[in-house]
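Handout, section 3.2

Students often ask what a structure token actually looks like in practice. Rather than define it abstractly, here is a full record for Protease HtpX homolog. The first block is the sequence as you would receive it.
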Amino acid sequence: MHSRFAADRKLTVRMVTVIFLLGLVYVAFVAVLVALLKSVVVVVLVAAGLLAVQYWFSDKIALFAMHAKAVTPEEQPQLHGTVDRLCALADMPKPRVAISEMDMPNAFATGRNADHAVLCVTTGLLRRLEPAELEGVLAHELSHVAHKDVAVITIASFLGVLAGLLVRFAFYSELFGGRDRRDDQNTAALLASVLAVSALVYALSFLLIRALSRYRELAADRSAAQLTGRPSDLASALVKVSGGVARIPTEDLRTAQSFNAFFFTPAFKEGTVGATLFSTHPSLERRLEALAEISAELDRRG
């Protein structure tokens, strides 16, 4: 799909590279499990089925998990009007629009492609942002759809879940499904081997996904700022949303953290260990600096 969102070749290269490397990692992972356990074929087929479900129904799964529902133009005329204008400006199909009844200010887009995408905002976001700020956030999320990185991050994030399922089902099916359990030494060696391989796969996946996820957020900020021509509104929204997330109770944030890779800002409080080490997003300071650079560039052009 071609749109008027500025193309980002660096993002495309990163997406292709991450998917290729993750594919190699998981093919090797499955091969090692087959060699170690010799009964993992069924588990692989089940895991592949789960991945297919996640890919084809990611939009429905996300809406269900976030307690969100699609809204019509009659129910939310201003929100739909903003999305309509941005889609016309970007020359892209309009995604479904949904609202999550959460006080945490945030937004996300998901779906396997532009024709099967959903754009969701929380009621907390709608309450806190001015119309121009909301437009910046929505443009940010629409750029994820236009650049197709939503589908890539969906697959990449779910592969880590598949690794855990493969280890759990394959190991226990072999351990309790006919292996001579009297050979404790062999069993212990098998367990150590599986855990070591799994830890390596998880570490590699973690690094690859975080590298892609952090860059794609900067790319979406840049594309949204260039499309709207107002980087300052997006910067203002970032500050408000980050401040709003900081005031949300920690227990409420935990329920949403599984969607961090998709959110406009992560469900972490700035300065915490999770925000610095495990965040799927660049720091607020880094994003504001990038937007300030874009604003200066636009001023020079204008």
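Discussion prompt for tutorial groups: The chain has a mean pLDDT of 81. How would you have guessed this from the sequence alone?
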